[in-house]
Fold these 4 entries.
Entry 1:
Amino acid sequence: MWQEWSVQTHLMENKYKIKQNKTAPMLEDKIRAAFDEVSQRHTRPRRLIADRLVELAMSGENFTIDELWQEMRELDPHLGRATVYRSVEKLVAMGLLDRVDFADGTHLYRVCGENHHHHLTCTQCHMVVEVDVCLPEDQLNAIGHKTHFDIEGHSLTLFGRCESCRVQ
Ligand SMILES: [Zn+2]
Ligand SMILES: [Zn+2]
Ligand SMILES: [Zn+2]
């Protein structure tokens, strides 16, 4: 079950992605429900991760797997990085968290708005901006038609340098 969810779904917008209202209490419910779905056993590590993810989601903070893992290890030294990784990727697959990839190959996770969007990232300071642009649907359809693909999703990330990095 966990393994199925750990595929790199960020590369492809999941066509089953549920459109949700990411208001704080609902988001908390969904994060907890996601963990319940994965395991009926409410193990302590899972509960700790769920608690921290809810906090991060509420605060709108960006975070990396390693940051989250280091924090969690202070509470539970036996917690494996893979468990943390799978928990986070599960939430990405469910559309509760976004994975943001940077030009340098690193990435982080964050809670974004509920509308379809892409990310504009700063190559220097890693600032993330949600942008309301997309590929034209008729062109996507034309590509699918021409290549005999059933196109299920796409990813698009814009890179650049933000204003404050440019003035330095
Ligand atoms: Zn986003
Ligand atoms: Zn910048
Ligand atoms: Zn798009």
Entry 2:
Amino acid sequence: MSAERVPRGIDPTRAHPARRYDYWLGGKDNFAADRESAEILASGFPTIRLAALENRKFLQRAVRHLTAEVGIRQFLDVGAGLPSAGNVHEIAQGIAPESRVVYVDNDPIVLVHARALLNSSPQGATAYVDADLREPEKILDSPELSRTLDLSRPTALILVATMHFITEAEDAHGLLNRLRETLAPGSYIALTHATLDYLSPERRAEVVEADEKSGVRFQMRSREEFARFFEGLDLVEPGITSIVDWRPDVPPEQRPSVEDVSMLGAVARVP
Ligand SMILES: C[S@@+](CC[C@H](N)C(=O)[O-])C[C@H]1O[C@@H](n2cnc3c(N)ncnc32)[C@H](O)[C@@H]1O
């Protein structure tokens, strides 16, 4: 996107997570500052693009599982990101056209492009809420949410590659719990998260340095810290794994290494 085509309300001079992720996925809705930040991070973690693509594949496998095998028909996708191939409603409605999806993101660029997330099947519904996960009440009280989802019925809360933008100081676990306590029994939570767990101490140091230089605030979490998001929930098989090993649809020899992807994923049921 060229500087002269900057939409109103967008700051192109500072890297933003949604636009940087769009760059890694091969999208066009990013600016020089996003690409620069992306390349700085890639200098410490060269397989970041692969990690982004694998994350997207996890999202799609999780939504497919929840729709086709569990029977979920409502989705709340927080940190939805810019529209990309295989958005949640496209996957879910491809299986069950009556599926209803609410997308949430706090990045103004996602709001600019949200129309592409709203092309629901006639039998289902989609909505977009411009809100910040750090203000869960704004999400929960939004008219778009109450018009689209009935939270007294099972709903899948999706936070895929989102929680690592929330620090401990911002009470990441408390924020997730606030959303989770509104979910009906039989609801699900699907999460992925960046981790340093799979890397050697030398490689960890390189990633941390590049991450700090990249200008986007980020919080890596260990498997133990990630597991705390699921306390009191029933993990779906195979539990907490590298995203590449979570209900994979390709044999092991075709999957990237857990080091190159360095993301944890899991899906759990609210009892
Ligand atoms: C790496 S992208 C992931 C997009 C999508 N979930 C996926 O996995 O393909 C992270 C998204 O989370 C959003 N995000 C980060 N912090 C957020 C916050 N506090 N509230 C809402 N969205 C947030 C970013 O704007 C970005 O679109």
Entry 3:
Amino acid sequence: MMVMRTIVHIDEELCDGCGACISPCAEGALILENGKAKVIREELCDGAGVCLAICPTGALTLESRLAEAFSEQAVEKHQAGGSSHYIPQHCVSCNVSEDDAYLLAIKNRGKSLWYCTRCLPRLIHG
Ligand code: SF4
């Protein structure tokens, strides 16, 4: 069902295909295709915009337009099928993978940098 709503917009000119936005999307709505981020299906994107803060190039924005309605059932089905598009992020300080540690995104000078919970105290306290 098409509805007027907020949904992510990807500027392909700005997207460099780094993949940083793929795994932070809780719904698994994003994939990399031909070196560019892409929304797999509109019904998987809830328009929350978490990915916006992650993108280092400003390629992601939110727009209001006619789109397929967000569907939690579609997300559950999508996630139950397992995502082959998972791209784990790494701590910029010690390089540990999010598969092995908890990572938090920290904004600095317009960039989102991932830090694990072991390295974060050093960043805070110096
Ligand atoms: S984080 Fe930005 S530049 Fe990187 S793949 Fe996603 S949209 Fe493209």
Entry 4:
Amino acid sequence: MQYLKLKTKSWKLKEESKEMVIICRICEKKFMEAVFKEHSAECYELNNWKNELQKKNAEVTKLCELAFEKKQELSVNAVIEKYCFSSVKLLFISQFINKDER
Ligand SMILES: [Zn+2]
């Protein structure tokens, strides 16, 4: 008789616990009601961190792209500068040559 009472009690507990399963709206995992409150707060915080991390990643990616563009611009400028200087030098030299020829 005692055994049956215990058995019934455990069935009732099982039934009750089945009813108290909650699905988290953030991560969509199932939790028992007792655990859910704690999970909910942690999941919310974790989700905020994830969003923050995504934002920071996007910022870093954007900055990397900007840095790459700047680098390209600088090397193009360096080439132009080098080319201009050598053209100026050539002009300078050619003027001297022309003077000698006159
Ligand atoms: Zn969750």
